[in-house]
Amino acid sequence: MAIAEVTVIPIGTGSTSLSSYVADLQKVLEQQPGITFTLTSMSTIIEGSLDDIFSAVRAIHEAPFHSGAQRVSTSLKIDDRRDKAGSSAQKLRSVQEKLGELG
């Protein structure tokens, strides 16, 4: 399973607020099979197979165009570890253990 961090930025929307676009993107992700996702204050984390992640990223990249945006910038970062199973939660637990936050 891969973990991806994606940020979609509609450009030229006439407003500095993008929260309505972000909400629309989350609704699109809810319809995408084979993935789990977590919204953060700066991006969205998507977990799943590479094919499912790429399909989800394509869908959320397209969504702002359907809402009237004429230009969209999407940034994607992928962590694809194949030697053992992992997840975003597992990565956080590992750091927390090293910080002594978990017993």
UniProtKB/TrEMBL annotation:
Residues 4-96 form the Thiamine-binding protein domain. Residues 94-103 have a biased composition (Basic and acidic residues). Residues 76-103 are annotated as: Disordered. SUPFAM superfamilies: MTH1187/YkoF-like (SSF89957). One of its GO terms (cellular component) is cytosol. Signal peptide: none annotated. PANTHER family: UPF0045 PROTEIN ECM15. Belongs to the UPF0045 family. This is Thiamine-binding protein domain-containing protein. It comes from Paenibacillus apis. The lineage of its organism: Bacteria, Bacillati, Bacillota, Bacilli, Bacillales.
